[in-house]
Write a structure and sequence with these properties.
The structure holds two protein chains of two kinds.
Chain A lengths: L3 E3 L4 E4 L4 E7 L6 E7 L6 E7 L2 E5 L2 E6 L4 E6 L8 E8 L6 E2 L3 E6 L1
Parallel strand pairs in A: 2-11
Antiparallel strand pairs in A: 1-3, 3-8, 4-5, 4-9, 6-7, 7-8, 9-10, 9-11
Chain B lengths: L3 E3 L3 E4 L5 E7 L5 E8 L3 E10 L2 E4 L6 E7 L2 E6 L8 E8 L8 E2 L3 E5 L1
Parallel strand pairs in B: 2-11
Antiparallel strand pairs in B: 1-3, 3-8, 4-5, 4-9, 5-6, 7-8, 9-10, 9-11
Classes of the chains: A mainly beta, B mainly beta.
């Protein structure tokens, strides 16, 4: 079993839709949770960072962590064509390497 | 802004060649990483370095070595390239090794024929 599981998609939505991207993880020691966004032919860049359980909001983006079910989510409200990218979840316990999900490819259609 | 640059965007090499991929960061970060990214497998850590001349193996170090002679520069070396090393290679740097944001370079698409 992979430590972090992520549906690869692709996920295709119309502009303005609410997008939900999800990951599950297996290691209960994971405490730090990240979402990276990767545009085509570019390196990933950090989008959201949360510690432990709870929600974090930044503009149209909300990151949610449920440690009881080992579930990580990223919600995008009012999705835009510029949100079209691959989204990678990532996590670490703090004393070991970051483990990345395989990424979900999102396409927002105008 | 943190900037991580990689020496080549695209590289084509032949089986058995020695290949050098170079990465430079301009933010005085202690920690630097080399990953490869493959469809369905995501980002896998090859090596990371937490200080000059210090390195640790990642998940898939076989067939690779690294060099860090200066703080800002981290090189990945394929001693004898093989076709199964065809991949996207990404370099990253961070202030702290595990919990800090990693800043990635644009990647090098390596094809081994």
């Amino acid at each position: 079993q992979k430590e972090v599981e992520q549906d690869p998609g692709p996920l295709s939505v119309p502009e303005g839709a609410i997008v939900s991207l999800n990951c599950t993880y297996s290691n209960s020691a994971f405490q730090y949770f990240m979402w990276y966004r990767q545009y085509s032919r570019k390196g990933p860049e950090l989008l959201m960072y949360t510690y432990s359980s709870g929600n974090k909001e930044d503009g149209r983006f909300t990151a949610q962590v449920d440690k009881s079910s080992k579930y990580i989510s990223l919600f995008i409200r009012d999705s835009q064509p510029s949100d079209s990218a691959t989204y990678l979840c990532a996590t670490t316990g703090g004393y070991q390497k970051v483990t990345f999900g395989t990424g979900t490819k999102l396409q927002v259609i105008p | 802004d943190v900037k991580v640059t990689q020496s080549s965007r695209y590289l084509v090499k032949r089986t058995g060649e020695k290949v050098f991929l170079e990465c430079v960061q301009d933010m005085d970060h202690e920690n630097m990483f080399w990953y490869r990214q493959d469809p369905g497998l995501g980002l896998r850590l090859i090596y990371f370095s937490y200080d000059v001349k210090m390195k640790e193996k990642g998940d898939i170090p076989e067939g690779y070595s690294v060099s860090r002679e200066k703080k800002e520069r981290f090189s990945l070396i394929l001693e004898s390239a093989s076709t199964n090393q065809t991949s996207m290679y990404l370099c990253a740097s961070s202030l702290q090794p595990y919990t800090d944001t990693q800043y990635f370079g644009p990647g090098t698409r390596l094809t081994v024929l």
